[in-house]
Amino acid sequence: MVDQPNIRLAVPFFMVRDMEASLDFYTNKLGFTITNQWTPRGKIEWCWLQREAVSLMLQEPRDRDKFDQQGAKGTGLSICFQCTDALALYQEFTAKGVQIQDPFVGNNMWVVCFADPDGYKLDFESVTDVEEETLYSDWVKQQG
């Protein structure tokens, strides 16, 4: 008998200051879809988002003042999305107005790194054989 895995999925759960701004960012700019939501007061207060095989959850606290007093969000934490082509996502996201620093190669991966509206760090990464610490802008110049 083969044992089935018990733990099958980890889903990042972000507390967000402004659900509408976060939903605009994650759905309209990053291409996630709302697959579940909780609307106890007629507006979304919690939701599950998905894009391809990746999920995340957002929740807006009822006490924004207390949320704001907690300080910077996501300090020391990065959510790393392993992708087939992180540079294609860089092109997609920047075309939709997402401000992203120049991608770079780190640990044999292209790293496309930016923060969401609440400061949570998101890294979209894909394997590459390009030299370590290469900046995307320099690499594009070499290709052209």
Short synopsis of the structure:
With 144 residues, this protein is an alpha/beta fold. It has helices at residues 19-29, 64-69, 86-95, 136-143, and strands at residues 13-15, 33-38, 46-51, 54-59, 78-82, 104-106, 109-115, 121-127.
Descriptive tags:
single chain; 144 residues; 2,3-Dihydroxybiphenyl 1,2-Dioxygenase, domain 1; 2 domains; four-stranded mixed beta sheet; 8 strands; globular
Describe the structure.
The chain is of the alpha/beta class. The chain folds into 2 domains: 10-70, 2,3-Dihydroxybiphenyl 1,2-Dioxygenase, domain 1 (Roll); 72-144, 2,3-Dihydroxybiphenyl 1,2-Dioxygenase, domain 1, CATH 3.10.180.10. The protein has 4 helices and 8 strands. The chain has a 4-stranded mixed beta sheet with strand order 1-4-3-2, with helices on one face. Strand 7 and strand 8 form a beta hairpin. The mean pLDDT is 93.
Percent in strands: 25-35%
Radius of gyration based on Cα positions: 17 Å
**Helix-strand string:** EHEEEHEHEEEH
Quick one: biggest sheet? 4 strands, mixed
Oligomer: single chain
| Secondary-structure-derived class | alpha/beta
- Please count the helical segments: 4
CATH architecture name of the largest domain: Roll
Strand order of the largest sheet: 1-4-3-2
| Alpha carbon gap, first and last residue | 56 Å
Indicate the topology.
Blueprint: E1 13-15, H1 19-29, E2 33-38, E3 46-51, E4 54-59, H2 64-69, E5 78-82, H3 86-95, E6 104-106, E7 109-115, E8 121-127, H4 136-143
